[in-house]
Structure formats: structure tokens, C-alpha cells
């Protein structure tokens, strides 16, 4: 079950949803609009490797706008720290942003219960597009879960800005398990 906008606001007041800072003007009928943070990064290398740490270059979006180009993935943080121990957040672009061909995530829209962070957006432009820090770029919805709740305690917890992929850690953990079982 998805929460309506007024219910999102009610849950924020109760502290069961955290959106910091919160602006009630950004409540929609069944979502809350979040803002694009200032910091962003992109990978140094064009070819990425899942087993290795892919080095990222960091920058700040200009108040006069920064053009994002196709064929790259840009990681940017939400301006807000958000999360809930009670509801499942799911993020998506605002329709007005999608209409410019700008993706705000690349197939990773699901946020874990208990993940409280500045979430990392995976910006992907279909054609060059100028974006601005602080613009209303996406919306978060909140869904009522069914079943016992286990809170997120993963590798992206406590992120304060955009975080490059840490998938190489999965391989490192697997290697450690394999060498332990061989001893
Ligand atoms: O677009 C997204 C999607 C998720 N997250 C954050 C919140 C989420 O709770 C966390 C982990 O997401 P997921 O479980 O999909 O990633 P993972 O690669 O499986 O990480 P982990 O091994 O920590 O579970 O990353 C983002 O910042 N942006």
C-alpha cells in the first residue's frame, strides 16, 4: 500500500519517516519531491570492472548549470537525508525531468527499510541536458511492508553524498570465504 502525500507528512511529524530538511510545499498527492545535491562524481575510466574499485572524480554542480552528456553515468546525492524504519521508500524521476530524457536512477529504485542517507542518484542523460543543484529532480514514495522488518545495515549506510559502486567488496568477501574454507 502506498502512502498518500498527507500521510507522508503525518508520518514525518511522527518521526516514522525522516526527510531532512523537510518542506511541506514539496508534498504531492502520493509522493515527496526531493532535490538534487551539489556534489556529483563520475568514473575516471570508460570501461568499468565489477571486481575492482572504479576510481571516481568528484565535482560540484555549478549554480549556473552543468551539462550532463550521454554515454556516461553521473552519480549525485539527494540534497536531503531520508529514510524510514517503517516504510519502504521507492524513488523515481519527476515526470517533468523524465520528459527531458534524464534518468535519475538506472534500475535501482528500491531503498531498504532502515537506510538513512543522502541517496545516490545514477543520472543518465539521453541527450545533453543542463541540470542545477537544488532543482526538484525526483520523487520518493513510501510503501507499507508486510512481514517482520529487518533494518538495512549495508555498505552504503550513512552516506552523506554520492557513493560509487562498492560491488568489488562482494568479490573480496567471496574470496575470503573461499580461502577460509580451503584452510
Ligand atoms: O538508487 C539508489 C538505490 C539504493 N540506494 C541506497 C539505499 C539502499 O538501501 C542502499 C543499498 O541498496 P541495494 O540493496 O539495492 O544495493 P546493494 O548493492 O545490494 O547494497 P548492499 O550490499 O549494501 O545491500 O543503497 C541509493 O542510494 N540509491
How would you characterize this protein structure?
The chain is α+β, with helices and mostly antiparallel strands and 183 residues long. It has one domain: Deoxyuridine triphosphatase (dUTPase) (Deoxyuridine 5'-Triphosphate Nucleotidohydrolase, Chain A, Distorted Sandwich). Helix content is 16%, strand content 31%. The chain has three helices and eleven strands; from the N terminus they run H-E-E-E-E-E-E-E-H-E-E-E-E-H. Strands 2, 3, 5, 7, 8, 9 and 11 form a seven-stranded antiparallel β-sheet that branches. The mean pLDDT is 96. The structure holds deoxyuridine-5'-triphosphate. This is Deoxycytidine triphosphate deaminase. Keywords: Hydrolase, Nucleotide metabolism. InterPro entries: dCTP_deaminase, dUTPase-like_sf, dUTPase_trimeric. Pfam families: DCD (PF22769). It comes from Planosporangium flavigriseum.
Amino acid at each position: 500500500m502506498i502512502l498518500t502525500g498527507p500521510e507522508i507528512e503525518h508520518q514525518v511529524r511522527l518521526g516514522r519517516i525522516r526527510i531532512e530538511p523537510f518542506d511541506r510545499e514539496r508534498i504531492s498527492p502520493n509522493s515527496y519531491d526531493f532535490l538534487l545535491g551539489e556534489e556529483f562524481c563520475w568514473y575516471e575510466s570508460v570501461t568499468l570492472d565489477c571486481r575492482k574499485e572504479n576510481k571516481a572524480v568528484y565535482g560540484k554542480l555549478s549554480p549556473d548549470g552543468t551539462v550532463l552528456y550521454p554515454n556516461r553515468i553521473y552519480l549525485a546525492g539527494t540534497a536531503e537525508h531520508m529514510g524510514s524504519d517503517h516504510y519502504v521508500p521507492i524513488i523515481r524521476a519527476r515526470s517533468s525531468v523524465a520528459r527531458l530524457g534524464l534518468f535519475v536512477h538506472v534500475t535501482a529504485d528500491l531503498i531498504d527499510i532502515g537506510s538513512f542517507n543522502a541517496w545516490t542518484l545514477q543520472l543518465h542523460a539521453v541527450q545533453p541536458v543542463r541540470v542545477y543543484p537544488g532543482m526538484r529532480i525526483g520523487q520518493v514514495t513510501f510503501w507499507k511492508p508486510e512481514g517482520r522488518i529487518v533494518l538495512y545495515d549495508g555498505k552504503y549506510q550513512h552516506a552523506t553524498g554520492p557513493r560509487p559502486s562498492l560491488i568489488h567488496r562482494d568479490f573480496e568477501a567471496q574470496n575470503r570465504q573461499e580461502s577460509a574454507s580451503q584452510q
